[in-house]
Structure to design on (333 residues):
């Protein structure tokens, strides 16, 4: 891996001209924030999503409504698995960048749905890479995940071996990273993979812990807690994640993989305590053993992103969860 290509952009200035950018997963949590941020700074955005049933279409339409009225935005409802539709879209629009965020993204659900994850995350990504190649799109940035590290030594660093994932979901993301590498080598496509670490905040996914725990504690339902609350996760607030994503889009590296985490793992017990404080109610807890598909800890080394993308995550878990909770209360009433 070569660290030099992005160095000319370490001052993190946006390109002087605006770009036309395809954002896949634009109705989702992270995609809706990325599309909105790109529009705000002047880019033209085409958003793609198929409203996959991993959570409600109503929630995804609400995400879209936050920015879809923008004059430089168009929305395309299409499925990544439709190779012809991907080719037609990229041929029609001629994008400066592809920001690929659409995916099936839940580790636990993936365990019994390996075929669906393979079709959407691997074949879908290859459909998009192929469409990018055929249309002459030069820059491809895509979401990977901290889960690729499995039980690797901490803190996780991009140079660690990632050939032993614990579930189908990270296995599919590793496949995306290596497939993108082949497009870089064979066709000179500039590809950047971003390993996100537990992103949370307003518009957060209902199947992720901040939303699920808040809902259950509020309703007096029982939380199922693994390994007596010892698991730790490197929670990253959406605004911090967004700063890294936008910097990577602008940098246009040749081929790079970056960790985008906070670099400060939080224990599950502490995480629950903060939510209890916000909701004003104690959680009912049921203990369960840690499944072999879950690592005990995720912990990002973010030095590479600091150096090459000027990425400096700032939001503490206390502030981030409080901003999440403020949104949650409005969104669920
Ligand atoms: N949220 C996190 O903590 C996290 C962590 C690591 C990686 N990621 C990755 O970041 C990306 C965005 O995640 P998110 O949390 O915003 O998830 P999300 O589910 O909110 O967004 C993903 C979007 O992709 C769409 N999609 C799914 N299958 C599709 C298909 N076949 N065709 C077109 N669209 C499809 C979904 O409808 C959804 O709106 C994903 O690639 C995910 O794997 C997220």
């Amino acid at each position: 891996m070569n660290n030099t290509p992005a160095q000319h952009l370490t001052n993190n200035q946006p390109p002087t001209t605006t770009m036309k950018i395809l954002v896949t997963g634009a109705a989702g949590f992270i995609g809706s924030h990325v599309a909105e941020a790109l529009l705000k700074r002047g880019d033209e955005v085409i958003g793609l999503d198929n409203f996959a049933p991993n959570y409600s279409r109503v929630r995804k339409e609400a995400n879209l409504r936050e920015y879809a009225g923008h004059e430089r935005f168009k929305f395309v409802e299409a499925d990544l698995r439709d190779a012809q539709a991907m080719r037609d879209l990229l041929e029609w629009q001629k994008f400066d960048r592809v920001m690929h965020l659409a995916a099936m993204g839940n580790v636990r659900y993936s365990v019994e749905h390996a075929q669906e994850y393979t079709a959407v995350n691997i074949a879908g990504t290859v459909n998009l890479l192929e469409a990018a190649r055929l249309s002459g799109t030069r820059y491809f940035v895509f979401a990977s995940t901290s889960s690729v590290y499995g039980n690797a030594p901490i803190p996780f660093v991009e140079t660690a071996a990632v050939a032993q994932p614990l579930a189908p979901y990270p296995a599919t993301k590793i496949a995306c990273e290596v497939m993108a590498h082949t497009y870089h080598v064979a066709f000179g496509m500039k590809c950047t993979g971003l390993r996100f670490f537990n992103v949370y905040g307003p518009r957060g996914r209902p199947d992720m812990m901040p939303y699920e725990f808040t809902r259950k504690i509020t309703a007096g339902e029982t939380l199922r807690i693994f390994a007596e609350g010892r698991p730790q996760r490197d929670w990253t607030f959406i605004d911090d994640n967004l700063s890294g994503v936008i910097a990577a889009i602008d940098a246009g590296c040749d081929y790079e993989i970056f960790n985008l985490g906070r670099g400060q793992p939080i224990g599950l017990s502490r995480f629950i305590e903060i939510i209890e404080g916000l909701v004003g109610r104690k959680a009912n807890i049921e203990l369960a053993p840690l499944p072999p598909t879950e690592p005990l800890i995720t912990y990002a080394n973010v030095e590479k992103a600091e150096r090459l993308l000027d990425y400096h995550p700032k939001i503490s878990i206390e502030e981030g969860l409080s901003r999440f909770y403020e949104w949650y209360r409005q969104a669920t009433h």
